[in-house]
Amino acid sequence: MTSRTRQVRRAAALLGAIAIGGAALAAAACGGTSNPDKTATAAAKGGANTPAAAGTSAATKAAASPAAQATKPAASGASTTFLIADTSLGKVLTDDKGMTLYTFKNDVAGNGKSACAGGCLVNWPALTVASGAPSKPAGATGDAALITRDDGAMQVTYNGLPLYRFINDKAPGDTKGDGVGGIWFAAKP
Q1: How many Å apart are CA 85 and CA 96, to the nearest integer?
Q2: Which residues make Cβ contacts (< 8 Å) with residue 132, sequence separation at least 6?
Q3: In the chain, helix, strand, coil percent, each to 5?
Q4: What is the pTM of this model?
Q5: What are the residue boundaries of the structural domains of the chain, listed by start?
Q6: Is 145 helix (H, G, I), strand (E, B) or coil?
């Protein structure tokens, strides 16, 4: 085997690993498995039922999007899970980076379920935590709690309604998701 052939094979293996990692990140961002190793293994085997196997180009785009990056679980412990910020809509709930949080009209308060799954989570990523109870900032009068999503992720709720971000909000204070379809609304404290 020539040196050039070995270099080409190494580059191909590296690109494959990057694609699988991106697919695992996209799957986690879209409500897929929370175990990147499991997703990457399934994608490498060509598992058609895994979110990562749905298409590398779509997975790569999702992994590169701000929404995919914004789905990192909020830190648990002393810091608050969400904040209150002043926006053009008045005071709204935001994540720890200042991105507006939303509620979904199709969710039923207090039933412990989210009506947003699959493709819905691409545009409306759930606010999740890795572990621990959610905490709220001073001035938030409602109850903060958690529900377990079908994929096992722990989603934060406020007054019984699951909280989400919006993919088209690009900067802290953006409220582009408020009123979308008449079913998405900025969460108010």
Answers
A1: 10
A2: 76, 77
A3: 35, 20, 50
A4: 0.60
A5: 3-64, 83-186
A6: strand
